[in-house]
Amino acid sequence: MKKPAPTTLFDNLWDQHVIASLGDDHDLLHVDRHYIHDLVGPAGFADLRARGLAVRNAPLNIACVDHSVSSAPGRTADTTAFSSALVRDFRRETTAARVRIYDLSDPGQGIIHVAGPELGLTLPGLSIACGDSHTCTHGGLGALAFGIGSSEMVHVLATQTIVQARPRRMRVRFEGRLPAGVEAKDLVLHLIGRIGTAGGQGHAIEFAGSAVRAMGVEGRMTICNLSIEFGAKIGMIAPDDTTFEFVANRRFAPKGAQWDTALAQWRDLPGDEDASFEREHSVDVSQVAPQISWGTSPEQTIAIGDVVPEPGQERDLARRAAMSAALDYMGLRPGQPIAGTPVDWVFIGSCANSRLPDLQAAAAVIRGRKVAPSVRAWVVPGSQQVKRDAEALGLHRAFLDAGFEWREPGCSMCVAVNGETLQPGQRSVSTSNRNFIGRQGVGARTHLASPSMAAAAALAGAIVDARQY
Fold it and tell me: Is there a common fold for 9-270+278-288 and 291-468?
């Protein structure tokens, strides 16, 4: 009997969700979970209703208030006029459609890419779609997760299916032992800086290797979160005992005999070691230092001990022009050390780095120290659960004593549509995932970094190596 061809994790998950092959590498997929947030949800439901359609399977659609709302202590939906209108419409539409909404008063509320996994709604092997490009985050638990557009969202609401082109396969191995002071965020920024924001375009990426296996699920989600910054819609990590321990006993995780059945199925999801990938990359993590972005793209990233690059040394003319434009916007000079660059703001939050281990890493840096007088520093937990857990550990007191502001869960300054922005020319070190022009406000200058690096910048009033703390 002929031995079956080796398969990848991606192939296993994709094939399990194909309803029909449509030709030209396009398939109709079943969507197990559809996450909907307040920024796009109201318009999506309104469009569905205007077409005379109804939600196909309401229990498989989950709504969460996160993007538009203020993170100020004591906030309500009416704290800003923008969120007031959106949340009002969102509440009305989800109620009419009988879709569960995690509103501001709900103990499960938070950034959907943080709340979904901690509620046990995100599970290994599921297909997950959301009108947000960072849906790839959920791949950290071994899910097939990807962002979709507004018209695709209406299609999912109406049919609980989605048409997708099958991507090519890529594997990235992070091998070795992480040096002290280097975090998951540093690894993925290093990768993007080395290969570029188009490096994963057209591919589904499986992250593997000994460094990944040694990570908690939160670090794995951080790596998968930035898959889209690498050009890929899908990033995933094969589930293992670390994943199963994370999922066990969560609110919506299987229980009893159903857990035993699910666990047996999940153990069959990982692909074969000798499976074929169209592209492969390997990173020796022992050689990675803490990273910091210097420009207006995640690929414009260097190690903390490096100098700002010289555009004239870049052979590609388009990249050279982009580098020069980024330097002008960021107010930096070629050849200057990135360390020592003064900062005005520090933001610790976003779906990339707002989970409990992220806050613990930052708190370890700032405990017993003070934020520089020139810096305004925020901590925005990723969910109500993260906030409760952090407060139970006293982390909020460490941040407040150091001079940070302790905020309410939401996307906050990462997306800057909620009134929480930098002023033109102000510079931030942010644990978010995008540093595009204007991402944190008109004229704002954003440096991407890990929680430890952001915390260190708050203390020093400048970009510094967190390992000195």
Answer: yes
Q: What is the CATH number of domain 9-270+278-288?
A: 3.30.499.10
Distance, C-alpha 139 to centroid of its chain: 10
Rounded to whole angstroms, the Cα distance separating 420 from 379 reads 13
Amino acid code (one letter) for 57? N
Q: What is the pLDDT of residues 54-100, one digit of tens each?
A: 999 999 999 999 999 999 999 999 999 999 999 999 999 999 999 99
Question: What is the side-by-side order of every strand in the sheet holding 127-130?
Answer: 100-102, 61-64, 33-37, 127-130, 144-147
Q: Is residue 99 a contact partner of residue 58, using CB atoms and an 8 Å limit?
A: yes
HSE value, Cβ hemisphere, 13 Å, CA-based, for 247: 26
| Segment 338-364, tens digit of pLDDT | 999 999 999 999 999 999 999 999 999
**pLDDT tens digits along 147-195:** 999 999 999 999 999 999 999 999 999 999 999 999 999 999 999 999 9
Domain map of the chain by residue range?
9-270+278-288, 291-468
- Which ranges in 207-355 belong to alpha helices (H)? 210-213, 217-225, 241-247, 256-267, 317-330
Contact between 355 and 409 under an 8 Å Cβ cutoff? The reply is no
How many C-beta neighbours within 10 Å does residue 243 have?
21
Provide the Cα torsion 328, 333, 338, 341; round to 10°: -70
Query: Looking at domain 291-468, which CATH architecture does it have?
Result: 2-Layer Sandwich (3.30)
Token output for 301: 């990233």
Residue 2's pLDDT is 59
Would you tell me the crossing angle of helices 217-225 and 112-119 to the nearest 10 degrees? 150
Matching residue, tokens 């994963």:
200
- C-alpha to C-alpha distance for 134 and 408, rounded to whole angstroms: 21
Cα–Cα distance between 358 and 354 in angstroms, integer?
Answer: 6
Token reading at 77? 């939906």
Model pTM greater than 0.70?
yes
The rounded distance, in Å, linking the Cα atoms of 222 and 184 is: 7
Please write the tens of the pLDDT for every residue from 134-148.
Answer: 999 999 999 999 999
In this structure, the chain runs to a length of 469
Q: Taking each helix axis as running N to C, give the angle between helix 184-195 and helix 217-225, from 0 to 180 degrees, rounded to the nearest 10.
A: 30
- Whether residue 141 contacts residue 122, with contact meaning beta carbons closer than 8 Å, is answered with yes
Task: Reply yes or no on whether the pLDDT at 3 is more than 80.
Answer: no
